[in-house]
Structure formats: structure tokens, C-alpha cells
Design brief:
Chain lengths: 576, 360
């Protein structure tokens, strides 16, 4: 019996050796994907994180992005070396952009990538017949015209300093392949077999295969203008993050996450730091481009209405009994110990933020002092706003007096705080907030909701306060859809807190149409917005998490940046 | 028998429609919608989300969505003169121009599930039937392996437990059966992955095949090691049920007169247990056939998720998370039909195996 067991275990061991070897041969980079499959690779309509990250290795884009500043680059190399623009000029009135494109980039079937490809892709988007979500650009662009193979002229309806980013919001499709499939009907783009198997591409990799719920592979493009080192890139689909981390530690995969995601959980970051220090693998850390916040509903939740009518005139939305008063919002911002939230909920792997954005974004003003824990000041502000402890019993809620602006006298200070279930960091942060506000006499009914239900409350503006997070924020922190009345639409708008400050709206408009679009000028305007939002607190600014890439030591020449895991994919080599 | 089968099939029709209606209603009542999940971002405007919602038809009232899924929408709005533009509409349910833009909406192109059209996945943008068909081999592979393990171990354990009632073997088997039934299988799966995969390194940590650039999955004999842990975990609960079931029915059989007769004839205990007792103890087992057949194809969403096994259960799990109604409903319908047919087959087999039973 013992002998038999030995034979079985030996067989299993040999089999496992064979397994481990198969994953590492030939310089193949292997990552893990904890989300859904990349089921739609068409860069015009693809949407999930893994699709967008793979698109960058397959499709050309209008220009390259500086991996350090995340700003558009002229004629530079970027992470995937797919940018076409050598240079561009802007007319004096800011309405005409003329791009000069490279002439040495080809599709993998040998056809050149030209300005006509870009025009075709844009025209498909502008048709409105596809399911592309990237229609922001249509607000300001009048037309896109390819003058010749290397000259592209973009004409705007109105000057927009954001248009340069919006023009690069999608990869470029091969016109000579796609157009004949459409029969003149752009709506067919949604249904192309090409979306699942993009055979003609122009990136460092060609599309390999998608095996649903298992893996997606990209194969080296030997016709690329650069010498591409890795033989391929495989994204392994692992639905359970714990299992994915163990696969990395066991050497079955080279990286935790995909090119577009970091994915080391906060609770394991310190352990990863220690192991990296010991030389077990490589890591790279940065502050994420997203933040977690609590949105205060400033309008009457009992009667949600839009912020303005069709002519832009304000609509009376009523006021929330507590959060309609800025003093109450400021009191809450001083009533909670942020160290407790960051250490207790986010495992210490986050940084407190002072306004909209995170230190990773150039529109964020790091010089603003964040709100500090000061319960005495919070109570004083609440008293000034008309909320007092009328029975000298700290265990009962504060009540509104005659001085309260919007609450009926005698109203107990109690509100509902919602967040999405399953997010352990937010659930823990909500518990800290509930506990510490309770200590100054504010009753918080903290509830977790399934994400779909939470979004219904949020977009329906049927809530008191809601804790949620936004990620992938724009570098300039432009958030006009979030903090101006144009986004205050019941059922669909992202100004779900019904915030209105005319100065903020003016500043957003000014930053959008700044003559010359100078970086310094726009940054100053966004910093001014940051200071106003810091004081007004339409959102209660909490924290931005740290992110960590983890890469096996076998991945050589690895050059990561914040939000750019592989800045030099073509040069990466995987040692056996 | 024929009359019985026909009667059962006719009785199944309202059950089938009841299942479809209730399932669709539950999905429809779930908060949120697939567009919110796919396009929840501030830079996507409310109008664009509304357009995308209209493209999928999830902004229609419940009865329109349900009817479209059940019997299609080619009869709701159609093109009678063949110019590709809808010119007729069944006005009780819809209009030619539903969004009021002055142009008729396109003719309906769905045939509905009753005509074999399972629709297209909202997320994967491909026919649901193709998605399910692609996942079935993996599910069958896992389910059949688990069933073989459960039967190969559960049946003898049950018979031996009954034959040695009250012995150490019996007591240990009963305790293990309770433990296997009680332990959550996702937890057991993770523990086995961590121990045998991460710690000992003898099995891969999930997946069905090795990773290759071509995505080709080799024959099962070349990748059997991927199957071992998920099959064991999936077999666990069935193994416990089978052994308990067999123990009870074997004990019942062992008290019958013909077993006493067999003993009197001088047959060995082994011959009595496995030749006479087991055969008769297996008769009630036929009632399990229906659920077994249903489980065979239905897979196990949790196990498939923990082990990254690309089967039907995982397709269902992802579909439910993403509110991909056509995918979820497609799997629900096939499960419902499999359950109805499986239970009917159980009843029929029971009659065939045990002549004392009569169908009425």
C-alpha cells in the first residue's frame, strides 16, 4: 500500500513539473484576470478593463502618452508604441487641429495605417448607430477629415481643451477590413465576428485566441516595426482572487492582474513588500487614480427633481434637512478620525484626499490641507447650524432647534448611509463612520446594498448619504458631469448629490475653453475648483487607495509606471 | 405507460410556462440593469445609457420583454413589402415608431425561445445557445467524474456500513457523511487548492487546461490533474448522500425474508451483501436519477468559480452577476426541461425496476 502511494505521489509530482514548465516556455508573459472575459475586442465598443488593456497592444492610437505625466506626446515612444501622430498644430481660434501622422506603421496584413483609417473609425462613432460609449468627443467635434494618408484635420464646433484627450479615447480600426463587412450600415459594427477575433491589427501583438472563462492569448506581431521580444501574452481568467494570488506565488503566472489592473489586495500589500524585499518577486507601488467618498444628498430626497429645466433655469429641489447646510457637512468632515478609516478599513494602504481627485492627477491640488479630526469643532459647528444635545445624554441623537436651516425643530439627527455589499473596505469604513458619528450624537443607519440596488438609489437621488468610489479619473479632474447642474438628472445623471455652485460651473467652462489650452492655466483653474469643492463638501472626501503591481523575477526589463504596467512591452523578456 | 407519459407531458406544459414567467419576473424585478453594470461611469451621459438600453430592449415594459423572449418580436413589428423597413405593427403591444423620432423602428428579428431562438447575450454579443453549448463539455466532464467518484465510493461504503451496523467503520462513515454534507464546498475547494496546489504543488491551482498561445485544450488524459480536485470536492456531498441512502435501504433489505433464506442456504456474507442485498437496495436509488441527470448538466456554479472551471455553472453565475437575462433564462429553461424529464424518467424507471409499483 505504501509503495502504491509512493508511486501515485511520484506520478503527481512529475505531472506537476510538466505543468509548471508548460506555463513558462518561450518567453510568454502570463497575467491573471479576475474580471470577465474580453469578449469584445473592437476598440470602438469594447468596455471592460481587460478589453481596454488588451486593445492597447493590438490597435494603433492617435498619439502616444507620456507614461510619467500621462500627457499627450508628440513623436514619442509610449508603452505600446502605437501612437501615429508625429506632431499637431492648433489654429488661433482653437477650432482646427491638424495632425501629421507617421507613414511607417502597417497593419499585420501589410496595409499601411493611415489617416483614412482614423476618419473611418470616427465616422462610425459619429453615426450614433454603434453601441460605443465613447461619444463625449461628438459634443465638440464637427468633422474629421483625412486630407491624405498622413494628414488629419479635426474641426471643432466649439473650442475644447479636452478634445485632444477625447480624440484618443478609442483605438483605430482597419478601414480596408471593416468597411466591406458593413454594407454601408455602421450598426453592423456591433455584430462583427471581427470583434471576437480581430485578425487584422497593428500592435506589438496579434490576437491569438479566446477560450471563454479560461484564457485569452496574444501572439507576437513579427511584422511590427519594432523587434518585439515576448513570444506572447496570455491572460488567465481566474474568478477567485485568492486562487489567483496563490497561482502567482506558486509560479503558475508571472503577474497579479492584467496590463490594466494592479490587483494586489490591500490586506496582502505589506506581505508582498516583505517578500519583494527578500527578492522573491518585483513590485511597483503608486497612488491610484480613483477615490472613495461619501456623497451627501443636498436636495429633498422625498421629491427628487432635476437641477435645471431644458433652458438651463434652476428648478426648486427642496433641501435636505441636514446636508442642505454646508456647516453640517463641514462638521461631519471633522467628526471622524481619518487615521481610523485608513488604518482600520483600508489596511493603511491609502492616502486621505482633500478634494475631488487623487495625488496621482495633475488637476489635484496637493497643497490643500485635508479635513482633520476635531470632534469639539464639529459639535460647535453643529450647534451653530442648530443641532444640539437637548437632554445632556450623549447616547441620544442631537435634535434640531429653531436655528436649523432646513430641519423641523425637534428633528433627531439621524440619517441613512448606504454602500455596496461585498466591498470589505467600504463596509469597514462605514462601520467606523457609524461608530464615531454616534459618539457625537448622530445616528447613522448604515446599510449595505447589492450594487444594482445601490445604483438605483444613487441615480434616483433617493438617499441621504452614499459611500462609493470612482476610478480611472481624468488627469485634469474635469468633473462637469458630476458637480454642475448639467449632470443633475434624476435617474441618470452623475451629479446625484444635486450640488450647485455657479462659480464652479464658470471655472469648468473656463478651463474647457481656455485660449491656447496652456497646461499651467488649466491646472490653476482646476486647483481653484478643488479649493471650492474642499470647502463646500458636496462629497465627503475620504481616501485614495494605493495600488501595487507584482511581477515575477522571471520578467526581465520590466519598466512600470503608475497606471502603466508595461511601458516597454516590446522589450520584455521572460526567463525560463 | 404511454398514456401516463402523455399525461405527465401535458401536465408539464403549465409548469414549464410557470417557471419561465416566474424566472423572468424575478430577473426583471432585480434592481439595476445590464447597462448600468456595463456603463456606470460619469463620462457616459444619461442619454447615451438610455440609447444603449433601448438597443437591448431592456427599457420595454415587462410583458413586452417577456413576450419577445418567449415568442419573439417578428410579429410585433414587421416589414410586409420587403424594403427592409417595418411598415406594420401589432398595435395592442407596440407602435411602429416607439421612440417618437418620426422613423419606424427596425422589424423584429427574434423568434423566441419557443421557436428555438435563445437570443443573444447582452454582454458577449453572441447567441446564447452557442455560449451554453461551448460550456457543456466542461460541465459534463466534471459532473460525470464527480458522479463516478461519488458512486464508486458512496455505494460500497453504504452497503458495508449497513452490513457492519454499529461497527467502527459504520460510525466513522456516518460522521464523515455528516461532515461532508455540512462543510461548504467553496471552503473545502479553497483548502484543497491551498494544500495540494500551493503547499504540496502536486495539482494545478485551478483551470481546465494548461495555458497555450493557441488556446487548444488537449484530451482529458493529458490534463487529468486539473480535474482531480474539483471532481473530489463536487463528489463530496453526493458521496455522503449516496452512502447514507444506501445504508438505510440496505438495512431495510437485510431484514427481509429472502436474505434469511440466503443465509440459510449457506451463502457467504459477501455474496449476500453485494449480490442479493445491494441489487434490491439499489431500487429506491432510481428515484435519485432525475436529480442526478439535472445536476449532470447544470454543473455547480460555486465549484466552477473557485476552480476556474469553464462550465455551465460559471456561465450562469457570470450571467446573473451581469444581469445578462438571455443567458440566465437560457440556462434556467434547459434546467427546467431537464428536471421535468428527469423526474418523469425516475418514475418510469421505478416502475420498470420494481414490479410492485403501478403508475396511475
Amino acid at each position: 500500500m505504501l509503495k502504491l502511494m509512493r508511486i501515485v505521489l511520484l506520478t503527481l509530482f512529475v505531472a506537476s513539473l510538466g505543468f509548471a514548465a508548460s506555463a513558462q516556455d518561450g518567453g510568454i508573459l502570463i497575467g491573471t484576470n479576475f474580471g470577465g472575459d474580453p469578449t469584445n475586442m473592437n476598440p470602438l465598443i469594447s468596455n471592460n478593463t481587460v478589453e481596454l488593456s488588451l486593445n492597447e497592444f493590438l490597435f494603433p492610437s492617435l498619439y502616444n502618452i507620456d507614461p510619467v505625466t500621462r500627457a499627450p506626446m508628440r513623436a514619442g515612444r509610449n508603452d505600446q508604441d502605437n501612437g501615429l501622430a508625429l506632431d499637431w498644430t492648433i489654429s488661433d481660434d482653437g477650432l482646427v487641429y491638424t495632425f501629421t501622422l507617421r507613414d511607417d506603421v502597417t497593419w499585420n496584413d501589410g496595409a499601411p495605417v493611415t489617416a483614412f483609417d482614423y476618419q473611418f473609425t470616427f465616422d462610425a462613432l459619429a453615426s450614433g448607430e454603434t453601441s460605443s460609449p465613447r461619444t463625449d468627443v461628438l459634443q465638440s467635434v464637427e468633422s474629421v477629415e483625412a486630407v491624405d494618408a498622413t494628414t488629419l484635420v479635426v474641426t471643432l464646433k466649439l473650442a475644447s481643451c479636452r478634445v485632444i484627450e477625447e480624440l484618443d479615447d478609442f483605438g483605430i480600426l482597419p478601414q480596408h477590413i471593416i468597411e466591406p463587412m458593413l454594407d454601408g450600415n455602421y450598426a453592423e459594427i456591433d455584430n462583427l465576428e471581427y470583434n471576437k477575433n480581430p485578425s487584422v491589427t497593428a500592435g506589438v501583438f496579434n490576437f491569438g485566441a479566446l477560450v471563454p472563462d479560461q484564457q485569452t492569448s496574444l501572439i507576437r506581431n513579427d511584422n511590427h516595426w519594432m523587434d518585439v521580444s515576448p513570444e506572447g501574452y496570455i491572460i488567465r481568467n481566474v474568478p477567485d482572487q485568492i486562487v489567483g494570488i496563490e497561482q502567482f506565488l506558486a509560479g503558475e503566472v508571472n503577474s497579479v492582474g492584467t496590463a490594466g489592473s494592479a490587483s494586489v489586495p490591500a490586506v496582502q500589500m505589506q506581505d508582498f513588500r516583505d517578500r519583494a524585499e527578500a527578492g522573491e518577486f518585483q513590485i511597483y507601488e503608486y497612488v491610484d487614480d480613483g477615490l472613495t467618498f461619501v456623497g451627501f444628498n443636498m436636495a429633498d430626497r422625498g421629491n427628487p427633481v432635476n437641477g435645471q429645466d431644458e433652458d438651463g433655469n434652476p428648478i426648486d429641489q427642496g433641501m435636505h434637512p441636514f446636508f442642505g447646510d454646508v456647516r453640517v457637512r463641514q462638521a461631519l468632515a471633522q467628526a471622524v478620525n481619518y487615521t481610523d478609516i485608513i488604518e482600520g478599513a483600508a489596511e493603511g494602504e491609502a492616502v486621505q484626499v482633500n478634494s475631488f481627485g487623487t495625488p496621482a492627477l495633475w488637476g489635484y491640488d496637493s497643497s490643500i490641507e485635508p479635513w482633520e479630526y476635531n470632534p469639539e469643532a464639529a459639535l460647535a459647528l453643529l450647534a451653530e447650524a442648530g443641532f444640539v444635545d437637548d437632554d445632556d445624554d450623549p447616547s441620544t441623537a442631537l435634535v434640531a432647534t429653531e436655528d436649523a436651516l432646513y430641519a423641523e425643530p425637534g428633528t433627531a439627527f439621524a440619517f441613512e448611509l448606504l454602500t455596496n455589499s461585498g466591498n470589505l473596505v467600504r463596509e469597514a469604513a462605514g462601520t467606523v463612520i457609524q461608530d464615531q458619528l454616534g459618539q457625537i450624537g448622530i445616528d447613522v443607519d448604515f446599510q449595505t446594498q447589492e450594487f444594482g440596488a445601490l445604483v438605483q438609489f444613487l441615480l434616483g437621488q433617493d438617499f441621504d448619504a452614499i459611500m462609493i468610489g470612482f476610478t480611472n479619473l481624468d488627469q485634469d479632474t474635469d468633473a462637469r458631469n458630476v458637480f454642475t447642474p448639467v449632470g443633475d438628472l434624476v435617474g441618470g445623471g452623475f451629479n446625484f448629490v444635486s450640488y450647485r455652485n455657479d462659480r464652479v460651473t464658470e471655472l469648468y467652462d473656463e478651463a474647457l475653453a481656455l485660449p491656447g489650452c496652456s497646461f499651467e492655466g488649466r491646472q490653476a483653474l482646476y486647483h481653484e475648483i478643488s479649493r471650492i469643492l474642499h470647502e463646500d463638501l458636496p462629497w465627503w472626501w475620504l481616501f485614495a487607495p494605493f495600488s501595487m503591481y507584482a511581477e515575477a523575477n522571471s520578467v526581465q526589463n520590466w519598466m512600470p509606471y503608475a497606471e502603466t504596467r508595461y511601458a516597454n512591452m516590446a522589450d520584455i523578456a521572460i526567463s525560463p | 405507460m404511454i398514456k401516463y407519459i402523455i399525461r405527465r407531458l401535458v401536465q408539464s406544459i403549465p409548469i414549464f410556462f410557470g417557471i419561465t414567467l416566474l424566472s423572468y419576473l424575478i430577473l426583471w424585478l432585480a434592481p439595476g440593469d445590464p447597462i448600468i453594470r456595463l456603463y456606470f461611469a460619469p463620462n457616459i451621459k444619461a442619454e447615451r445609457r438610455a440609447e444603449l438600453r433601448a438597443q437591448l430592449g431592456v427599457d420595454d415594459p415587462f410583458h413586452i420583454q417577456y413576450l419577445r423572449w418567449l415568442i419573439g418580436d417578428d410579429w410585433l413589428r414587421w416589414d410586409s413589402d420587403g424594403d427592409g423597413i417595418a411598415d406594420q405593427a401589432f398595435e395592442l403591444f407596440t407602435q411602429l415608431d416607439t421612440n417618437g423620432d418620426g422613423k419606424p423602428e427596425p422589424p423584429g428579428s427574434n423568434y423566441g425561445i419557443l421557436r428555438g431562438d435563445f437570443g443573444n447575450s447582452f454582454v458577449r454579443k453572441k447567441p446564447v445557445i452557442e455560449i451554453i453549448a461551448a460550456a457543456i463539455p466542461a460541465t459534463l466532464e466534471l459532473s460525470i467524474s464527480a458522479l463516478i467518484i461519488a458512486m464508486a465510493l458512496g455505494i460500497p461504503i453504504g452497503v458495508i456500513s449497513a452490513a457492519k451496523k454499529g461497527s467502527l467503520f459504520d460510525n466513522v462513515a456516518r460522521v464523515l457523511a455528516v461532515v461532508l454534507n455540512a462543510v461548504p464546498n467553496f471552503w473545502l475547494g479553497l483548502i484543497l487548492i491551498l494544500f495540494f496546489g500551493a503547499h504540496l504543488g502536486v495539482f494545478p491551482l485551478g483551470g481546465r487546461c494548461g495555458l497555450t498561445l493557441t488556446g487548444v485544450c488537449p484530451q482529458i488524459l493529458q490534463r487529468w490533474q486539473y480535474l482531480v480536485l474539483p471532481a473530489i470536492v463536487l463528489a463530496g456531498a453526493d458521496l455522503a448522500s449516496f452512502s447514507r441512502y444506501l445504508r438505510t435501504s440496505t438495512l431495510d433489505v437485510l431484514s427481509q425474508d429472502y436474505i434469511r433464506t440466503a443465509k440459510a442456504k449457506g451463502l457467504s456474507q459477501r455474496q449476500i451483501d453485494f449480490r442479493h442485498a445491494l441489487r434490491n437496495a439499489l431500487i429506491p436509488f432510481a428515484t435519485l436519477l432525475g436529480p442526478i441527470l439535472t445536476n449532470l448538466w447544470g454543473g455547480a456554479a460555486v465549484i466552477e468559480t473557485v476552480f476556474a472551471w469553464p462550465g455551465v455553472g460559471r456561465v450562469f453565475f457570470n450571467g446573473a452577476i451581469q444581469q445578462d437575462y438571455p443567458v440566465v433564462m437560457g440556462i434556467v429553461i434547459i434546467s427546467a426541461v431537464a428536471t421535468i424529464l428527469g423526474l418523469m424518467l425516475s418514475d418510469i424507471l421505478y416502475v420498470i425496476i420494481d414490479p410492485r409499483i403501478r403508475l396511475t
